[in-house]
């Protein structure tokens, strides 16, 4: 009996349950995925606001405004959990974190700069990235689209 399971199985199952079209691309663990024409590389940042977590998607090389994020969330203070805290909140290790299949059903905030773009995000696996439409991800996760560009 085979117990082979794709390393991104949780992400794929969650995407399918939300009718979110996603494709998975191989990547070298510890490195950014190879550039794909027309695809924006995105990082998912786990942010703690009081007793809840929020998953923030922003362009990988872009700075974002913490003040704008705090204002959107209606809080005065945000923090970044340590690696163990991020794992406990999502079920994924840093570098693989994604809303796809993440534990906790945390709110998702998508940087407005990603609107209308095809994006590469984590898949829960260091060996694969996930390609999705940012707009479809926003719809599938009822994500907030927020202007987060740093001033």
UniProtKB/TrEMBL annotation:
Domain YbaK/aminoacyl-tRNA synthetase-associated: 35-133
SUPFAM superfamilies associated with the record: YbaK/ProRS associated domain
Source species, domain of life: Bacteria
UniProt cross-references to InterPro entries, sorted A to Z: YbaK/aa-tRNA-synt-asso_dom_sf, YbaK/aa-tRNA-synth-assoc-dom
Pfam families referenced in this protein's UniProt entry, alphabetically: tRNA_edit (PF04073)
Protein name, per record: YbaK/aminoacyl-tRNA synthetase-associated domain-containing protein
Organism this protein belongs to: Leucobacter alluvii
Taxonomic lineage from the root: Bacteria, Bacillati, Actinomycetota, Actinomycetes, Micrococcales
């Amino acid at each position: 009996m085979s117990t082979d399971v794709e390393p991104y199985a949780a992400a794929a199952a969650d995407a399918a349950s939300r009718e979110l079209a996603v494709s998975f691309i191989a990547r070298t663990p510890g490195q950014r995925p190879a550039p794909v024409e027309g695809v924006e590389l995105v990082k998912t940042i786990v942010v703690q606001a009081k007793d809840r977590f929020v998953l923030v998607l922003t362009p990988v090389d872009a700075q974002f405004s913490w003040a704008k994020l705090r204002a959107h969330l209606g809080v005065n203070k945000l923090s970044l959990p340590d690696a163990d805290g991020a794992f406990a909140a999502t079920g994924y290790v840093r570098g693989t974190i994604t809303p796809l299949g993440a534990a906790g059903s945390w709110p998702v905030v998508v940087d407005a700069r990603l609107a209308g773009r095809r994006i590469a995000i984590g898949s829960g696996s260091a060996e694969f990235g996930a390609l999705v439409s940012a707009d479809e991800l926003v719809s599938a996760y009822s994500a907030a689209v927020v202007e987060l560009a740093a001033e």
